[in-house]
Write a structure and sequence with these properties.
Elements (H helix, E strand, L loop, with lengths): L1 E5 L5 H10 L3 E5 L2 H4 L4 E4 L4 H10 L2 H10 L4 E4 L1 H6 E4 L10 E6 L10 E5 L9 E5 L4 E5 L4 E6 L2 E7 L2 E4 L10 H9 L4
Parallel strand pairs: 1-2, 1-3, 3-4, 4-12, 5-6
Antiparallel strand pairs: 6-9, 7-8, 10-11, 11-12
C-alpha cells in the first residue's frame, strides 16, 4: 500500500514519519501523475489558502476531487480539514468541497493560543489520543451522514464521511499514530 502526502506546503515530513511508524510506504505528492499512483492521500496542516491555490495551479484540485469521487480515501488535518469542507465560514477560498461540513478557520485563536488536549476517539479504545491544536478550525455544521469520531468541549474535532476523514488537530505532532492507523483501515489495510 502506498499513501501520498500532499507536499505543496505544511507538515509533510511529520506525516511521512507517522506512515513509516505504521510500516506503510508514504510518498510525497506534488503532481497529478504522483496522485494517480497512491491508494490514499493525506492533506497536511499548513496554510489552507496557499495549499488550495497551489492545488489549483498544478491541476491537483480537480484531480483530487475526481479520485475522491472514485473512492480514494483522504485524511485532512487542520488545513486539510478546511480544504475538505464544503463550506468555510466567512471565506470564498479555493477548496475541495468534498465533505459536507462547515468550518471556521483559526477559531481556537492565534498561534500563541495553541494547545494540546487528550481526546477520546470512537473506535480507538480507552486510551486518549493526544491532539495538538495550532490555529485550528472549528466544525460549525455537520450534515446527516457525517460521523463524529471525537469532540473537544462538545465540538467535533475528528469527523468521517465515507472515504473522507478530517481532524482539527495534529496527531502527527504528538508522536501519535493511532489516527493514521484508523485512516489506513479506511484504505483497506487491516
Amino acid at each position: 500500500m502506498t499513501i501520498g502526502v500532499l507536499a505543496l506546503q505544511g507538515d509533510v515530513r511529520e506525516h511521512l514519519a507517522a506512515l513509516e511508524r505504521c510500516e506503510v510506504e508514504g510518498v510525497t505528492v506534488r503532481t497529478v501523475d504522483e496522485l494517480n499512483e497512491v491508494e490514499g492521500l493525506i492533506i497536511p496542516g499548513g496554510e489552507s489558502t496557499t495549499i488550495g491555490k497551489l492545488m489549483e495551479r498544478y491541476g491537483l484540485l480537480e484531480a483530487t476531487q475526481q479520485r475522491a469521487q472514485q473512492g480514494m480515501p483522504i485524511y485532512g488535518t487542520c488545513a486539510g480539514m478546511i480544504l475538505l469542507a464544503k463550506d468555510i465560514v466567512g471565506s470564498e477560498q479555493t477548496r475541495l468541497g468534498l465533505m459536507d461540513i462547515a468550518v471556521e478557520r483559526n477559531a481556537y485563536g492565534r498561534q500563541i493560543d495553541s494547545f494540546e488536549a487528550d481526546l477520546t476517539v470512537r473506535g480507538l479504545g480507552d486510551l486518549p489520543v493526544r491532539g495538538v491544536f495550532i490555529r485550528a478550525p472549528i466544525v460549525r455544521r455537520i450534515a446527516v451522514g457525517v460521523e463524529v469520531l471525537a469532540e473537544y468541549e462538545g465540538v467535533p474535532v475528528l469527523v468521517r464521511q465515507g472515504n473522507l476523514l478530517a481532524g482539527s488537530f495534529h496527531p502527527e505532532l504528538a508522536d501519535e499514530v493511532r489516527v493514521h492507523r484508523y485512516f489506513l483501515s479506511c484504505c483497506g489495510r487491516q
